[in-house]
Amino acid sequence: MKVSEILFWLLLIMEGETSWISHYIDDMSKDIGDFDSFSELSDEGNKEATTISVDLILPDDLLERILAYLPIASIFRAGSVCKRWHEIVSSKRFLWNFSHVLSQKPWYFMFTSSDEPVGYAYDPILRKWYSIELPCIQTPNWFIASSCGLVCFMDNDSRSELHICNPITKNCKKLEEPPGLKFSDYSALAIAVNRTSHNYTVSIVKSKQVPGNFFQWDLSIHIYDSETMMWATSLTEVLTGWRGGDESVICDGVLYFLIYSTGGGAPENRHGLVTYNLSSRASPLIRSFIPVPGPLTCGRLMNLKEKLVMVGGIGKQDRPDIIKGIGIWVLNGRNWVEVARMPHKFFQGFGELDDVFASSGTDNLIYIQSYGAPALLVFDMNQKLWKWSLKCPVSKKFPLQLFTGFCFEPRLEIAP
């Protein structure tokens, strides 16, 4: 068989439809008959050559390696080509091959309702939106964190109901209720998955105002270890002039979270960053305080290849609550290095309030989404390139409708 014929089939697979009806997992469970082989023209006399089946040419191990390098949506389509391909992409050996392929580019799930956890997932490789259903989550305002194919959901009411799931395979696990305050004023959720062992760590930073004292806030850090399947409260401390918030991330064994000024002591900036080593678990936290790079209206933290990256709204000098731009920084030691600033032509659609966008990323991609519109901006850290995604197949139904979302790495072999 010619290489061009193999590529022909792979290209057909990658074309696909623009929506992911129900879920590709459901399609893979069906038994599908062998596809018709095709014929080629011989080089001599344009005579039709003998029909050759792809099944007879490619051994399983070679076909597995080829399919493992396809985008994940195309892998599901490949499972629908024929019974043999379905068995291959469903096998444990294929999952092992897939796990050794370079990371898939992260997808972005955009919620399209304020009440129901429904929406579309954007695939940056094929530049398509897929309609998929998220398991476990009940409303879009739940806390969400992701790492290496797993997504952690925590309810926004009691903040004690947590689920870990793979949104591609829909494998889910409910965690035990975490310790500490059940109804904290602020909570920040993070998860980190070990790519080798697939064990994971979940952290929750809880913050609650000390009764009768607006400037003092109780702060506690709670850690879940999937290996022991147990929670531990690793730190409790009282902050003066600062409180916790809802932004945190784990990078290379270190928990980072933003704290916010409560007005006492007139700090230089409204935000600060705290680092907490999950191995040594040293305290007090004030020793690990890192100032943010100038006045920010808001900050979004993310892990890109075990480096801490922050996307922040840049505030005006005279009006720090008014956003004038959006910047991207990488933390190098204790110093921030600016990577990029959003060009004005992209920033124009982001409004002038202090909290006007959602942002998350992994690998080399950063997604930025305005709360006020279903538009998604993508920044490539390697190419330093800004571009809009294809338009999400949803329209704004009323002026005050809000949109948000999160990114996750699509993986087949990771299970909670």
UniProtKB/TrEMBL annotation:
<keyword id="KW-0833">Ubl conjugation pathway</keyword>
<protein>
    <submittedName>
        <fullName>F-box/kelch-repeat protein At3g61590 isoform X1</fullName>
    </submittedName>
</protein>
<dbReference type="InterPro" id="IPR036047">
    <property type="entry name" value="F-box-like_dom_sf"/>
</dbReference>
<dbReference type="InterPro" id="IPR001810">
    <property type="entry name" value="F-box_dom"/>
</dbReference>
<dbReference type="Pfam" id="PF00646">
    <property type="entry name" value="F-box"/>
</dbReference>
<dbReference type="InterPro" id="IPR045048">
    <property type="entry name" value="FBXO31/39"/>
</dbReference>
<dbReference type="InterPro" id="IPR011043">
    <property type="entry name" value="Gal_Oxase/kelch_b-propeller"/>
</dbReference>
<feature type="signal peptide">
    <location>
        <begin position="1"/>
        <end position="18"/>
    </location>
</feature>
<feature type="domain" description="F-box">
    <location>
        <begin position="58"/>
        <end position="99"/>
    </location>
</feature>
<dbReference type="Pfam" id="PF24750">
    <property type="entry name" value="b-prop_At3g26010-like"/>
</dbReference>
<comment type="pathway">
    <text>Protein modification; protein ubiquitination.</text>
</comment>
<dbReference type="InterPro" id="IPR017451">
    <property type="entry name" value="F-box-assoc_interact_dom"/>
</dbReference>
<dbReference type="InterPro" id="IPR015915">
    <property type="entry name" value="Kelch-typ_b-propeller"/>
</dbReference>
<keyword id="KW-0732">Signal</keyword>
<dbReference type="InterPro" id="IPR056592">
    <property type="entry name" value="Beta-prop_At3g26010-like"/>
</dbReference>
